[in-house]
Queue: 3 jobs
Job 1
Amino acid sequence: MILERHFTVQNLPRPLSVRAALNYWQLPRKWQHQLRINRSILINHHYQSFNQLLFNGNRIDLALSADLKRQRYLPAPRITCQILYEDTDLLIVNKPAGIKTHPNQPEEKTTLFNELTTYLSQPPLMLHRLDMLTSGAIMVAKNPLIVPIIEAQLANKTLQRTYLAVVPYHPQMALQARITAPIGLDPKDRRKRRIDGSGLAARTDYRILQHNQQYALLQLQLFTGRTHQIRVHLQSIGCPILGDPLYSSQPAGRLYLHAQHLSYQLPFQKQVRTVFAATPASFYQLTQAY
């Protein structure tokens, strides 16, 4: 598969060498090597040394050969997700609570990725996941060229994910705090995770947006992407998410966890875009002051 990109350089903070600009845009080093060896990046229609300076307004044409295989998904019979943002590179949707991000078996056709296969007429490319019971903003790729770029943003925290959760309110709760307990597997239940001193590093920051005597609405910033991270971290401080069937003893009509917004850097630019998924009204209703 040949991946191409044609664009005009914008928003460089200063003139950068070709090599520095490709690093600035977070293009993988193996692809940079291919561009250099094959001379398949043109600056104003000519190949230039990687030490050549780039300026805003320069024309870039690049072509990469990549052996990429798309996962296949059956098309869904209907679409329940809301499209929040779309361009030629990616798609951001509001995933309803209660549907899986992707199928575990090839014959499944009711997951988000089945719906997006119907919408796009081709399989989406995975960038990150949301738990089945979590609603909110999730990003998928349409263009294989941007997959490693967005994955790099996830790794270096350029891509920011913010969540809302409803938890039991305790007067001793800090108004804002950072939770850094490492997370590992729960040996007693393979579905679950637990705080484990030898587990994977994890960081979640939260602040209380509003509360009453019963419940608090938290805004949470996710800095790592461990399975069930927010759910486990909040349970660990005595504030399990309302309606969590694995980590809370308090049932509700749904898991009260919602991916509120995503902020990311546009590929081959430094402009940041933030996309919001409307918060279900019940999150505010449950936590408003009496």
Note: The chain has a mean pLDDT of 95.
Job 2
Amino acid sequence: MKIAIICPFNNTLSIDYSIKVINFLKSKGIKLYLHKDLMKSTLIRNIGKEFWEFDELNENVDFLISIGGDGSMLKAVTVVKDTNIPILGINTGRLGFLTSLGKESIELGLNHLLKSEFKISKRCLLEVYSNKLEKNFFGFNYALNEVSVSRKNTASLISISAELNGIPLATYWADGLIIATPTGSTGYSLSSGGPVMTPESSSLVLTPIAAHNINIRPLIVNDNTIIKLCVTGRGYKHLISLDSRILTVPLKTDIFIKKADFSISKIEINKNFFINTLREKLFWGLDKRN
């Protein structure tokens, strides 16, 4: 078996748990591939030299383990890309909504992984493209959580015209607009007033950021919808964000967003993972009066 490990944020806590994971898998005779950034750690190099270093992965690897939090999971997506390698997230951060294992249950979870005692949850991605920008202007023009457009270097609102499958929808006068997947509905979109969608939903949600139009609210659309956005306003440029990656683009640039042709395979060790996570990490429905 071949397992790759990524730990994008090399803080002391994450490195300590990376070492714990590496030592456990070594003891099981697993062939390990470590991301190049993880290999920069002196503590990791001191473990041994029998690891393969990688920057990108191919289909020859069985699993990718992401150590950190939700940000680490988003980074892992840019490494896996369209290889369909399943990702297991281990949370050493705070919320860890996308991760399947807590740091207190690493060995138990890894044993389940090695015994194939897990579920694969398919998560859709968003693809972004524009006729005015280079084809791969982000290097990897896909997002697991959300795509957002927002203002840059101005206190003024921007105007965002939106079309759905070529049909004009509305012009949002706002700080920005979020297009979120079901996976991303519990992130930036939720904090901006958007709804929560279960991961298997065949939908996307358009959530305005601080809209001045009181008659515009979040809108759920079918995930086969092609969304076109065009931003105007004061200044010359605006921001576009794919998960945690941000780029500056000129105003009046036509931006197209659609569901990607491939999905991400997320490993879930526990049953009813999404519902349990809603209750345990977002305190869903908690009423202290009861």
Note: The domain at 125-261 is CATH 2.60.200.30 (Tumour Suppressor Smad4).
Job 3
Amino acid sequence: MARLPDLEGLAIFAKVAECRSFAEAAAELRLSKATVSKAVSRVEARLGARLIIRTARRFELTDAGRLLVGRAAHILSEGETAEDVAKAQARTPSGLARLTAPMSFGMLRVAPLLPEFLSAFPDISIDLHLSDAMMDLIGEGFDAAIRIAVQPGASLVAQRLCEMPRHLVASPAYLDKHGRPRQPLDLSQHRCISYSYTMTTEIWRFTKGSKSVSVRPSGPLRVNNGDAMLPALIAGIGVGILPEFLLGEALQSNQLERLLPDWSIPPGAVHWVTPPEGPLPKRVEVLGKYLIEKLAQG
């Protein structure tokens, strides 16, 4: 495989030819004179031709140098332009922001906020991917994620926005038919609807003072989305645990009832999550600031 061109050496050579001085080129590039001299010598060695004749009183390009300098100057100019464009984009909120969020929370809480944001930042576009699976931000090219979790991932940068309480619920019709659990262990005798997007079995954990109880639910239905669980709960198919933002209307209308209210279920939390390395593009920074402010207000 051929070696890559020495783009840095060619750009330095172009700056030396432009300034007609190694010392002035070094000053403009903020490099040492020795570094500049070595870069030009490196290009000469690679090409097998001398590019510059220099003495105490003379600076002159050789034939090879004159032949090369135009293309080298183009490399320098294109590199400077590319950096300027990248810096401008980093400072100006524009371009595509790829965001992932849980399906139900994304539909109910995130998506309604986006029209206002897009009106305020018309040069930004958003690719919103809704899924309850734990997406690989870096591997799948996402700029950021909204996650509901106890721990959103140790390798990522996460900002906690607010708690997301979860409740054990069932319909009055189910409770009339199957009875009301009095303690977490009673759930082993009940039809449980599990919420999980992994292949492992879900475990329900409850605490009360110093007591801690874990229950492995079993029952007729296991789903990977809270909205899909809700109709089954209302229809009396079983008992289940859902986040509070999905339960508000069903609880207020008495379609569902909270169970074991004196036992606590570890709450999840809403997090703004970004990859761990480097500064964020301006478009992602302003989107994050906007969503953090809106979602933290509840």
Note: The chain has ten helices and 14 strands.
